[in-house]
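Quick check before the chapter quiz. The format below is the same one you will see on the exam, so make sure you can read both the input and the output lines.
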Amino acid sequence: MYNVKEIYYTFQGEGAFSGRPSIFCRFSGCNLWSGREKDRKNAKCNFCDTDFLGNNGINGGKFFNEKELGKKIISLWENKDNKNKPYVVFTGGEPLLQLDKKLINFLKLSNFEIGIETNGTIDLPCKVDWVCVSPKHENDFVLKKGDELKLIFPQKKINPKSLENLNFKYFFLQPMDGPNLKNNIKKTYDFCNRNKKWNVSLQIHKIVDMP
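Here is the expected output.
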């Protein structure tokens, strides 16, 4: 069974694929925070800006097998009459708590490209087309290669410089959301100007008010 918070059609709002038409499938649950505000202070990732608790979002629910969930994802793409390459992003919470080879292979049969956004603490079940890792602690992630490293900035528990030798195609800093966002944007731009390995990633979907 897959426990899913929400599934929806949108445009990728962050990183290297910003602007790409995508289906987002957000799994419920995370291994770094319960999703409950009472637990935020002591969580390993206490700055999360995403609601991944439960399954009450758009198209959310419990899906009993890979065919049931896969068909829902496929239908949302087909309903848009989209001429682009079918693309789904699995996110969370932490998607690798639930994403498995069966679901990936089912969608591959329908010509979908598979992307994943993960905190990197769990290894992949099989090869996917695009791997975006967003680590939350310097010594607390195992997935140290992929396509895109996207670090929320600034963080007390992790220094971008310590990640620069990892095997990723793209290195992004993304300003931490919240009450200090304006100042965090400035810090991010300043750091990237001084360190050419890093590029700035803004949350465009929030700026233009997309899902």
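If your answer matched, good. Helices lie at 37-40, 66-78, 101-108, 181-194, 204-207.
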